């Protein structure tokens, strides 16, 4: 175990709002061991930015980690050549060109259909009625699991990410995760003989990726590709409706949807951390790590690091968010970042505000999670 100073947390309070605790860690013990998580947390932006790239020390290889046990060994749990090989195999499905030329028209068509059904209702929940189906429709297309339904996609994604954050070992959460991965495998089985063009299944098959790795990588795409866009869409809309002066800047073309999204994922990072395992003993900032130690790189904390952001707890779309690292900063930088940005900033946000005039909040929006964070409900109405 590392010799980092110990910080005790209340897991329920940390899930309800991790940011006050993370601020205390940055100030008092920026590298700290948390017994409740059995992990050493790295919380300052510069430390994360440097150490994430040191894969010889902070390795993604975690054969005993929750993600590997529950979802199979995907490319996110590999380093070096093994990671690069599978990342290159998946790239044709997620490249900026593929997103712009192939997926964007599909994103637009699916989102328009959802809005056509939603607009006459006059009220709803942005999470379940809009952000969830928009994100799921995009992910169904990208993965190639064309027989899966949006609510089914959302459910299996949620149950997998709950499983991957189940450091307390809740057996019910683990069982739901196993059921979700089994259902995904059933859907993959149906598509192996003829997957849709450009899909994650098709490009991996074309590259000769072994089937067990193909399956694990499809599950990886689902685990990050559903909850992050879903939570970022609903969360960014919530933030803008709570800051009408900033929404007005976008309507007046003084700011952009991309700036609103970039500030949101700095402020409330949908993917709050990335786990690593120490490959060899090393000392970082007077903390000595032992081989086998579990380390969490806290991207959510990096986004509120006071040395890079003035008033970091405030949502401000005019700020420079370039120091933020919500998608990571090293070789494991999110492979789906281009698809996520396109879906959210070019499709979901502008089309929503165009289609639903006088969009307004009608209640509170509860947030939850520290490893993955987002609103569970955003009640709204429109004219």
Automatic annotation (TrEMBL):
This is Cytochrome P450. GO terms for molecular function: heme binding; iron ion binding; monooxygenase activity; oxidoreductase activity, acting on paired donors, with incorporation or reduction of molecular oxygen. Belongs to the cytochrome P450 family. Keywords: Heme, Iron, Metal-binding, Monooxygenase, Oxidoreductase. Gene3D superfamilies: Cytochrome P450 (1.10.630.10). Pfam families: p450 (PF00067).
């Amino acid at each position: 175990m590392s010799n980092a100073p110990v910080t005790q947390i209340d897991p329920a309070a940390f899930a309800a709002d991790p940011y006050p605790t993370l601020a205390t860690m940055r100030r008092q013990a920026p590298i700290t061991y948390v017994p409740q998580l059995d992990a050493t947390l790295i919380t300052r932006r510069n430390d994360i930015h440097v150490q994430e790239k040191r894969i010889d020390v902070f390795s993604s290889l975690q054969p005993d980690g929750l993600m590997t046990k529950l979802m199979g060994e995907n490319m996110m749990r590999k380093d070096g050549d093994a990671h690069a090989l599978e990342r290159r195999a998946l790239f044709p499905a997620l490249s900026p060109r593929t997103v712009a030329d192939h997926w964007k028209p599909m994103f637009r068509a699916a989102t328009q259909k959802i809005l056509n059904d939603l607009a006459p209702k006059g009220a709803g929940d942005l999470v379940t009625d809009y952000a969830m189906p928009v994100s799921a429709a995009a992910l169904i297309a990208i993965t190639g699991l064309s027989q899966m339904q949006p609510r089914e996609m959302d459910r299996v994604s949620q149950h997998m990410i709950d499983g991957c954050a189940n450091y307390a070992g809740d057996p019910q959460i683990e069982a739901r995760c196993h059921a979700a991965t089994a259902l995904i495998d059933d859907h993959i089985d149906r598509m192996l003989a003829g997957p849709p063009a450009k899909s994650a299944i098709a490009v991996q098959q074309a590259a000769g990726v072994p089937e067990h790795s193909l399956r694990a990588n499809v599950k990886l795409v689902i685990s990050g590709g559903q909850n992050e866009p879903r939570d970022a869409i609903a969360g960014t809309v919530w933030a803008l409706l709570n800051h009408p002066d900033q929404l007005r800047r976008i309507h007046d073309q003084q700011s952009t949807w991309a700036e609103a999204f970039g500030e949101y994922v700095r402020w409330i990072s949908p993917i709050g951390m990335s786990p690593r395992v120490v490959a060899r003993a090393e000392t970082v900032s007077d903390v000595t790590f032992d081989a086998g130690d579990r380390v969490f790189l806290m991207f959510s904390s990096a986004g509120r690091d006071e040395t890079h952001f003035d008033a970091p707890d405030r949502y401000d779309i005019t700020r420079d968010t370039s120091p933020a690292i919500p998608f990571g900063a090293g070789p494991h930088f999110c492979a789906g970042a281009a698809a996520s940005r396109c879906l959210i900033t070019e499709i979901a946000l502008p089309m929503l505000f165009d289609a639903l005039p006088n969009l307004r909040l009608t209640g509170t929006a509860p947030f939850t999670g520290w490893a993955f964070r987002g609103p569970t409900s955003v009640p709204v109405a429109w004219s």
